[in-house]
Amino acid sequence: MIGRLTLSDFRNHADALIVPDHAFIVLTGENGAGKTNILEAVSMLAPGRGLRGAALRDMTRQGGPGSFGIAAEVDGVMLGTGVAPGAPDRRQVRIGGVASSANALADHLAIVWLTPAMDRLFMDSPGGRRRFLDRLTLALHPGHAVHSARYEAAMRARNRLLTNLPAADPAWLAALEAQMDEHGAALGGARADLVDRLSAELAAQPDQPFARPVLEIAQEDRAEEPLASRLARERRRDAAAGRTLSGPHRNDLAVVHAAKGQAAALCSTGEQKALLLSILLAHAALVAARRGQPPVLLLDEVAAHLDPMRRTALFDRLAMTGGQVWMTGTEDSLFSDLSSATRFSVCAGRVGVPQVNPRS
Ligand SMILES: Nc1ncnc2c1ncn2[C@@H]1O[C@H](COP(=O)(O)OP(=O)(O)OP(=O)(O)O)[C@@H](O)[C@H]1O
After folding, report:
1. Distance of CA 50 to CAs 44, 263, 355, Å?
2. Where do the segments described as Disordered lie (predicted)?
């Protein structure tokens, strides 16, 4: 749990202090106030590029000193990250006051997030769903990123080599295809394991009033032939296409609304949000089981598109996770059903004093 968060010159926050008193933290304010920026700051206390996937230099406050700092006490350990003036692209990390690497933050904090950009996850192209699938897989299989990077590197090299196909060295091509086979099998295995475990977790959850999704990795075809021999056979076709047409880089995540038997993309906006939340909550449960403690949930504009019944159900489910939950919204009334939360109003980059359950 994050006990105390400070921001300096991060996005539109010159100087902010947030000390949560409850597991639920609710940030409300007008559009552009700086609520998402606070969630993004929290997400920067874990490895990776944060919930917006933004460049570090874009996080430094415009008109500020050209640096930013984020610090938080997480289960008694001080975590800090930021950039120094003159080095806007070099991320610095401190754990317990000692300079460290961003990857080492994973030992101290796990985060699961939902952003409005994910509202279109089921409608948009497979690439977004693949990245989503890989992000979830990485939380359970830390080696996933390495396999992914090596697979992509071998594929890029193969694609380059195929541009001079008749003259290309077949032994070199075969070596690259063997690498794609090896790392591709690891990628596919880890993704399949994630989907199996999410499915088991989802099956154990009540499906009302939240929609229960059925998940499957959609593959272009399910040929049993090893990828390396397939790639060797398809060199000519791939050369003509200018890219590799077979392999796990073409996988998609297929999601179906179980009760309706309908593809998620055909469901209503609120139904899609409920399906996505079901997946994320199942994922949070898997992360909790792996780490022995629940992840911190960052839920940006989570109540949008949910009817009051689903909102109440969501808050009940969130309370059952036992972890810390940060939520944002433009109106306080969206969170009136929450029985205990620390509420902060955010206005033009300033965080107000906390209000604990103003209505109780
Ligand atoms: N590097 C930066 N320096 C200063 N301001 C920034 C920087 N990056 C973004 N901003 C500003 O931060 C403001 C707040 O953004 P944020 O996304 O946190 O708003 P929000 O409160 O979540 O609003 P909404 O309800 O519309 O989602 C935006 O107006 C944006 O222009």
Report:
1. 5, 29, 27
2. 225-246
